[in-house]
Amino acid sequence: MKVYDGSTETGSEPKQERLKVGIAEYEVTTSGADLTTSGLGSCLGVAMYDDVAGVAGLVHVMLPSAAEVDDANKAKFADTGIELLVEEMEREGAAKRRIEAKIAGGSDMLDFSENGSGIGVRNTEQVEATLAELGIPIVSRDVGGDHGRSLRLDGNSGDLTVKSANKGSQVI
């Protein structure tokens, strides 16, 4: 949905609606709104898009599996958060067979583990496994490293812009 302020003095295009996705939250749009999230360190942003239905969704997951922790917030976990997002997208007209995913985050910024399997790596592995179980392909990714990221999912095109300190902005 386009947000019009009623003003045409500057001759600029109307601003695109923007929905903020917080940590352990998700949003779905059918109006072409931009979905944004920030503060992705070891967390992962999972952006999904069905171009035929025009349905886009974004979830900001913190931890790999709901089975590891007793918490009612399904969006907090990679496994249940992705399932929740897919269900909501299907309610809005998306078809699982058409949904494609893009993922970003999963850094190990404060990784003190000896085996290199910090929370960022485990989050990425769980996201990949959950999407594979659901038959949803990952068409692009920007994961790992030791830097934070912010994301903007264009609800009209499915383009995912990743901003990070070491790479600047890039569309994946």
From TrEMBL:
Keywords on record: Chemotaxis, Hydrolase
Q: Does the keyword Oxidoreductase apply?
A: no
Segment forming the signal sequence: none
Q: Name one GO molecular function term.
A: protein-glutamine glutaminase activity
Q: Which domain of life is it from?
A: Archaea
Coiled-coil region list: none
Quick one: a GO biological-process term for this protein? chemotaxis
Record-linked CDD domains: CheD
Enzyme kind, highest EC tier: hydrolase
Give the EC number(s) listed in the UniProt record.
3.5.1.44
Catalysed reaction equations from the record: L-glutaminyl-[protein] + H2O = L-glutamyl-[protein] + NH4(+)
Q: What does this protein do?
A: Probably deamidates glutamine residues to glutamate on methyl-accepting chemotaxis receptors (MCPs), playing an important role in chemotaxis.
Record-linked PANTHER family:
CHEMORECEPTOR GLUTAMINE DEAMIDASE CHED-RELATED
Q: Which HAMAP family match?
A: CheD
Full protein name: Probable chemoreceptor glutamine deamidase CheD
Annotated source species: Halorientalis brevis
